[in-house]
Amino acid sequence: MRTYYYISDLNKVGKEEEFIPYIYDKIRGWVVDQSNILMDRILGYDDTEPEDSTYRIGNLDRLDRITEITEQEALKKIEEMK
Question: Rounded to whole angstroms, how far apart are CA atoms 48 and 36?
Fold first, then answer.
């Protein structure tokens, strides 16, 4: 299964395929998201909050930065990046 996402604060497209997160790079194409950009937003993870904060996961500000999109929408946004 493949799910596509638009990351609005970074103007990037991401996808999750077989539980592996990817970010689209203009030069290299789909690359494994080793920086956890996609998953941090999916989970609402905010590393700017203090460690003892209850808002580290599920932070609404982070969750608002990502939107699930269709494959067609993802392809359109990728084309617009070129």
Answer: 15
